[in-house]
Design goal:
- This is Ferritin-like protein.
- By secondary structure, this protein is mainly α.
- It folds into 2 domains: 251 residues, Ferritin, core subunit, four-helix bundle (Ferritin); 87 residues.
- The strands form 3 sheets. A two-stranded antiparallel ribbon has the order 1-2. The protein has a two-stranded antiparallel ribbon with strand order 3-4. A two-stranded antiparallel ribbon has the order 5-6.
- Strand 5 and strand 6 form a beta hairpin.
- The radius of gyration is 20 Å and the shape is globular.
- The chain starts with a strand and ends in an 11-residue tail after the last strand.
Length: 345
């Protein structure tokens, strides 16, 4: 399981009022976003029209991570805060650690899709406390807490504060159900709705303690990714332990149809005037425009989510232009996808 610096859990527990939670919920928004570029990078490097089952697994997790970021943003609005998304500090450095000291040394890269990336990074990001089938683990060191404990501490504190925590929302929430289901993205207005929303974030990532699926019947992120590593679909198997087994249709990652992308790219290191540098900067600028639209959507202009989703499709198209461009000094490699804050080029 990923570990979190315990000071964040302690700060939540020490909160004296809703405003004291604003910084912690902002950190949760940053955490939910931080996984999206690395997942997007892997997804985009799958050549279009190939590796479809693998692409659909990664895409399904991506959509739910965007949902989780939206839920955390709506929670901050409900508590009277203002999500900060259009901000250079919002974007993590890749390769690097996740926000809030998450991962106890886990370094997250921007890299092409591979079994190793899914196993060593993606599954580590999504790992539940006790991955099924349950195994014997050494006792956890008391110097760390877990993401689940962090969210549980927020829920406990909201129950302690009661209805007054939601008496002064900062603006309208983003509730566009064209993009996310109404039973997953809903208005947060009281303790019960807030705790239900938090529970969605945790369950979709980890599943339940006795099953790899959540209460809605969806496979949790960790086990979705494990399908790629095992090379088989996870299916119901009544005679198997916990009722599920990797015994379904084969899943094969065809590396011949994965772009050989430069890992952890830096546009500034590309030759000035080169096409590689130009398309790399265009991609980073489009990503920054997406962050700007999301910021507006969660700061008084909820309809800006439609613009944000349009920019997401534009990012997909631009990614192909970047990946089709060879590196100037390494023709066998594609120019890399740069997820950095780039307000202009």
């Amino acid at each position: 399981m990923l570990k979190i610096n315990p000071r964040y859990v302690a700060q939540v527990r020490a909160a004296a009022g809703p405003e004291d939670l604003h910084g912690m919920v902002q950190s949760a928004i940053e955490l939910e976003h931080a996984t999206i570029p690395t997942y997007l990078c892997a997804y985009f490097t799958l050549k279009r029209g190939t590796n479809q089952p693998i692409a659909e697994i990664i895409r399904s997790v991506l959509i739910e991570e965007m949902l989780h970021m939206s839920i955390a943003s709506n929670l901050l609005i409900a508590l009277g805060g203002h999500p900060s998304i259009d901000n250079p500090a919002f974007v993590p450095k890749y390769p690097g650690p996740l926000p809030m000291g998450i991962g106890d040394g886990l370094i997250v890269p921007l890299a092409r899709c591979s079994i190793e990336l899914v196993r060593d990074v993606f599954m580590k990001i999504e790992e539940p406390v006790d991955p099924l089938p349950l195994k014997a683990f050494a006792a956890e060191t008391p110097s760390y807490s877990t993401i689940g404990e962090f969210y549980a501490a927020i829920a406990d504190k909201l129950r302690e504060f009661g209805p007054s925590a939601f008496s002064r929302p900062s603006g309208p929430q983003m509730l566009n159900n064209n993009w996310f289901p109404a039973d997953e993205l809903f208005r947060i207005h009281d303790v019960d709705s807030a705790c239900s929303a938090i529970d969605i974030i945790v369950r979709q990532g980890e599943g339940t303690k006795i099953s790899p699926v959540d209460l809605e019947g969806g496979i949790a992120h960790y086990y979705r990714f494990e399908q790629i590593v095992k090379g088989r679909r996870l299916v119901a198997a009544p005679k198997a332990e916990h009722g599920y087994a990797f015994a379904g249709a084969p899943l094969t990652l065809d590396l011949r149809n994965v772009w050989n992308m430069q890992e952890n790219p830096d546009p500034d290191k590309l030759p000035p005037g080169s096409r590689a540098r130009q398309v790399s900067l265009q991609f980073a600028a489009a990503y920054t425009s997406l962050l700007r639209a999301l910021h507006e959507a969660f700061n008084g202009k909820p309809d800006a989510i439609n613009q944000a989703m349009g920019l997401m499709y534009e990012l997909r198209l631009l990614s192909q232009q970047v990946l089709e461009t060879p590196l100037p000094d390494s023709p066998g490699q594609s120019t890399g996808l740069s997820f950095r804050y780039q307000p202009s080029i």
